[in-house]
Amino acid sequence: MRSRFAARAAKKNRRAQLLARAPRISPTIEAAFVAAVRRQLRAYHDVIRNAYTPQMRQDDFASAYQTLAQKAKQFSEAFTATAFAMAKRLEKFSKSEAIRTLGDIASDLPSDVAGFAEQFAADAVEKLRGLMDRTLDDVEEAAPLIVGEEIRTSTLENILEGWISRGINSARNMVTQGTAQLNQERQKEAGIDTYVWLAMHDDKTRPEHAALDGQEHSYDDPPLTDSDIGIPCNPGDDYNCRCLASPVIRIVAQAADEEEAAA
After folding, report:
1. What is the total count of domains within the chain?
2. What's the CA dihedral at 31, 33, 34, 40 to 10 degrees?
3. 232 within domain boundaries
4. Which one of 15, 39, 194, 220 has the lowest number of neighbouring Cβ atoms within 10 Å?
5. Which structural domain range is residue 165 located in?
């Protein structure tokens, strides 16, 4: 009985150690980015509400669509600076996490990861534009119902709120994937190429991800996270994946072995 309890305690202690070494996701940055995306989408939705009025005629649908499509382009491009600033915050946070989890071997890592902020901003603008375009497509399809006095509010608002929800999920995913990319780059720069997969133990965790919990894998040879379609992913690469990668630090052990051999 005692050995069973001791084994459980040892397993729990090892997981706690692995979690302590795993770079985290910043909830503050995630919340700020989600809020920024939500604001931009709501501002665009206000333009849609003003365009599709109950007095609108069917002949006006095409011109309204063209105008709103151009507005979507303007709203998404205006988001570039915000997305870039968020990317720089992610870089700064990931550097502090690298130092916290890797110690001295991360002290000389550069603060910036080449090309990350520019690519993050470009991807954010593209995704935001896609969200706005698909929102507009749904609105155009429902336009004959939207301009009717009786059901205008429920039909239009259901469409807009649905795309707000999708936008929030997309924003969260961008932060988790961006964080995972930065953590992977920093660990590889520090000479670390393997990690222990740590899944979140809750009802939102995908079975394939839960099955990988505690396994050691290489960044260059990630495991399959979807056996049906054969997608290989590292922690955080999959859509809205909250799993963490705890670095396997072999450098210290190797140095200790060399010192012992020399003595």
Report:
1. 1
2. 140
3. no
4. 220
5. 2-192
Q: Is residue 242 part of a domain?
A: no
- Of 164, 134, 133, 139, the closest CA to residue 152 belongs to 139
- Specify the residue for token string 């001791």: 6
Is 151 within a domain?
A: yes
Are the C-beta atoms of 236 and 177 separated by less than 8 Å? yes
Q: Of 236, 124, 233, 223, whose CA–CA distance to 180 is shortest?
A: 236
Distance separating alpha carbons of residues 246 and 189, to the nearest angstrom = 15
pLDDT at 59: 81
Give CA separation, 178 vs 88, 119, 232, in Å: 11, 10, 17
**What is the rounded radius of gyration, in angstroms, for the C-alpha atoms of the chain?**
24
Whole-prediction pTM: 0.85
Query: Could you tell me if residue 39 is inside a domain?
Result: yes
Q: How many CA atoms lie within 13 A of 189 on its CB side?
A: 19
Helix (H, G, I), strand (E, B) or coil at 224: strand
